[in-house]
Amino acid sequence: MQKASLLFSSNSLAPLPCTSRRPLVPPFRRFLASPCAQLSLTRSQSCRFAALSPPLRCNATGSVKRQEMASQDAQEGQDGRVARIASAIRVIPDFPKPGIMFQDITTLLLDTKAFRDTIDLFVERYKDKDISVVAGIEARGFIFGPPIALAIGAKFVPMRKPNKLPGEVISEEYSLEYGTDTMEMHVGAVQAGERALVIDDLIATGGTLCAALRLLERVGVHVVECACVIELPELKGRDRLGDKPLFVLVNAA
Amino acid sequence: MSTYRDEDPRIHGIKTKIRVVPNFPKQGIMFQDITTLLLDPKAFKDTIDLFVERYKGKNISVVAGIEARGFIFGPPIALAIGAKFVPLRKPRKLPGEVISEEYILEYGRDCLEMHVGAVEPGERALVVDDLIATGGTLCAAMNLLERVGAEVIECACVIELPELKGRGRLNGKPLYVLVEYQ
């Protein structure tokens, strides 16, 4: 699977300790339920989401060898966590405008185990990789970035809309569907040669992540990977990142 | 119960990491910049630890964080104490059904929103932001939570500007801060 190989082929990270050839966390493809307006937030949220496609490991079940059972259990643990994370995300139709199926992570934040698992999955991937910077994109990147940064011992750098950061900044303009926007980072927040992650809740077209990448690279930082909870693969944001690796937990079809 | 922790040795390290930027966003304002605190992993961790030590084991099930800098401090606290995190946002950012609370600014008004159903009646909640100035935003946040029947146990901020008397504007609710800026 094309995307599986991309997850695994990053040459800027040491190979992850896993005896299986499958990626550590398979992108979890999920199909959208019929639109539900006025969703109430109750504990039993799974009913709002359509059947989930089976995780990748099930495709190999018929021919799993005995010595792969240990990694199979590990894989099951990963898939279980990702399944719960995927089902905790709420889809809001026609927000912010008609035709857009908005991926709402606020319901994930209400599920303490799923939120904890989300952070753990990123931390497991990035700890001991000499990452000294986690850059988070305003505003939902501020929710996921700091817990990751704290757990891996990195600093957290907020990437903000214009005129929010109080000190001297550098700016990067990027394209929107209509018009442009600007992202800013503090001068001196990062040093040349540092290794960085860029975090946001979701990648759509990749424009915002690209701007964040450029800001960091302009000051000589090596961006090791971009990491998001959700990817919208149809919008081809991954391609827009070029050779920069992207790691996500959930694909939203 | 002390209202701020100046006796803990970690406080000094936190205070020295906060950068003051004069005349931002406008003339006369000495802006308290916490981004420099976030660049020091130990100081950032100490900040979170001080809050977590205070609130864990207190049956707090909700940490509400005020957009946007409350999103930086709230989630790590929530994760550590096993509470859910509820973002309180500027208008039209939250995609689902919301309740809104208007509040007064120096010039004009603003509005804070919370998702319907995020918090249930009887839940015990914290409100977290990086700084309390006049207390207007924190007040709006508390009102949102109380309107849905939650009990606000305390407001928690990294920094207080005591001259602006925000502490007295919290309807008698306690305020806990790490650092005062005079």
Automatic annotation (TrEMBL), chain B:
It is an enzyme of class 2 (transferase). The keyword Cytoplasm applies. It is found in: Cytoplasm. Keywords: Cytoplasm, Glycosyltransferase, Purine salvage, Transferase. GO terms for biological process: adenine salvage; AMP salvage; purine ribonucleoside salvage. GO terms for cellular component: cytosol. It comes from the Eukaryota. Belongs to the purine/pyrimidine phosphoribosyltransferase family. Homodimer. This is adenine phosphoribosyltransferase.
